[in-house]
Design goal:
single chain, 152 residues, mainly alpha, 6 helices, disordered N terminus
């Protein structure tokens, strides 16, 4: 027989379950387009908006890929293009969130004292090897600047 004496316990448990569900729903809310309302109201206009966002994001990512081999901040441009896509596309939003998580994990690993020490040692050894190779080349062939060449 239920006398209702546990009513407060049941209500508080139900409230806490509802709060946790609302909190997780807020974290995992479905992706919503960032287009203005008047654009979202018309299907054709919204589709055009999405195509435009896709093309602009693709252009920024393409420029970022080019900047990987050319001078410029390639990775920054690639992540900016992904962020542009994330304003309209749920898959890009998930990819950007995954990328942010991986970058923060890598940053935490890089701050580990053992990893920092190893990186400093490896960089120092690499610089010493490069210095020895440059020194050997200069000893063997000497330093001849391009503007000092004799034209025959």
């Amino acid at each position: 027989m239920n006398t209702g004496s546990d009513r407060e316990t049941n209500e508080s448990a139900a409230e806490s379950a509802a709060d946790s569900a609302a909190g997780s729903a807020a974290e995992e809310a479905p992706h919503v387009s960032k287009a203005p309302d008047f654009i979202k109201a018309r299907r054709g206009l919204h589709l055009s908006w999405q195509v435009g966002v896709f093309v602009v994001g693709l252009a920024v990512i393409g420029a970022g890929i080019a900047m990987l081999v050319l001078p410029g901040p390639g990775w920054v441009a690639i992540f900016a293009g992904l962020a542009i896509w994330a304003t309209e596309f749920a898959w890009a939003h998930l990819a950007l969130r995954w990328t942010k998580r991986k970058v923060s994990e890598a940053a935490q690993k890089a701050l580990d004292p053992k990893v920092r020490r190893r990186n400093i040692i490896l960089t120092s050894v690499g610089l010493v090897i490069a210095g020895v190779l440059i020194g050997f080349y200069l000893w063997k062939y000497g330093l001849q600047l391009p503007w000092n060449h004799d034209v025959k």
